[in-house]
Amino acid sequence: MSMPRPRPTVIAAALAVIAAGLFAPASEARAAGVILGLGTLGGGYSYAAGVGADGGTVVGRSETAFGRQHAFRWTVAGGMEDLDASGLGDSSAAAISADGTTVVGERSALFSGRFAFRWTAASGMQGLGTLGGSTSAAAVSGDGSVIVGRADLSDGTDRAARWSAGGVQDLGTLGGPTATAADVSANGAVVTGRSTTAAGDTRAFRWTAAGMQQLPTLGGTFADGRAITPDGAVIAGTSSTAGGAIHAFRWTAAGGMQDLGTLDGPARPKAISADGSAVVGSFEDVTGENSRAFLWTVPRGMVDLNAYLPTVGVDLVHWRLLQAEDVSADGSVVVGTGTFDGEIRAFRVTFSPCGTVDFDGDGDEGTDNDLEAFFRRIAGGACAP
Description:
Blueprint: H1 8-23, E1 33-37, E2 42-51, E3 57-64, E4 69-75, E5 79-82, E6 90-96, E7 103-109, E8 113-120, E9 124-127, E10 132-140, E11 147-153, E12 158-164, E13 167-170, E14 175-184, E15 191-197, E16 202-208, E17 211-214, E18 219-228, E19 234-241, E20 246-252, E21 256-261, E22 267-272, E23 278-284, E24 291-297, E25 301-304, H2 305-308, E26 319-327, E27 333-340, E28 343-351, H3 368-378
Antiparallel strand pairs: 1-28, 2-3, 3-4, 4-5, 6-7, 7-8, 8-9, 10-11, 11-12, 12-13, 14-15, 15-16, 16-17, 18-19, 19-20, 20-21, 22-23, 23-24, 24-25, 26-27, 27-28
């Protein structure tokens, strides 16, 4: 005689108890998520820009007590660290390597213009090579060995640049005069960004050693590649539609362009999770004067983080999240910038995708599919945010 299958409510209750013990950090076991303001370097504001693969290290920029703007590196254990030890000029961190050891960004020093930098604990802040003009670093490979961003020619024209042990490399353009790189794969071999074309349009690109590939648009004449998965297979960015709206997109070689839409005004992705299933960024209201952070996932589509996070247990009292700038590899940590009681602050929000027993993200809890997804999680897979 076959045994009756457990009722969904029983499955849900059991999964909830097990998940709470398996997946929640001890300090957060009683909550599905938590938001932290990262503080400042003594001044009035801070902005987050990047997060390490495991979500434990955040970089960005903050005002100091002396009114300068300095790059920072924040860790759970150590708090916020000023990376610009000289104290002269201004600096801003843009990204951090997957292992959390290498930080890249831009620094402006007195009488020497703006230049891209690479920071490590051992070497401090070091400038990168140029193509004749100013430089700015936007992203770094998983081990910190390859950096991409922008390097101006001596005439001030922007070029997409790639720095490695071999020096600085001009990645070329799509036929127009300018290009800039925004992100790079974990091994440093695939780059995305935007370039002008011979026709004067701006298009997203995917660069490999074989050259620069122009990506399609969502029907308009503009596209900008902003984020790439570690394996270089999925790219997220912004594109105009045939009607002139600005939407987020996700591109793969097999599936082409996928319209992720927007929630109001223009949507601008900034980062993508390791498997390409989660995209974060910001969207503007119809006036173009206010922005709000968004999260897009395969099961839920695009949601305003200000509305979504409270539904999964994150207390946003006093917070307004303006921009989501980066996401951890598994999609469970998002960093960005918001206001706390009106003060501009970098934030780090941790929410457990397994804080709900809807493990497959289909809106129904305690189903057979949730049970299967639960055991995939135990085996090392990720839950749907």
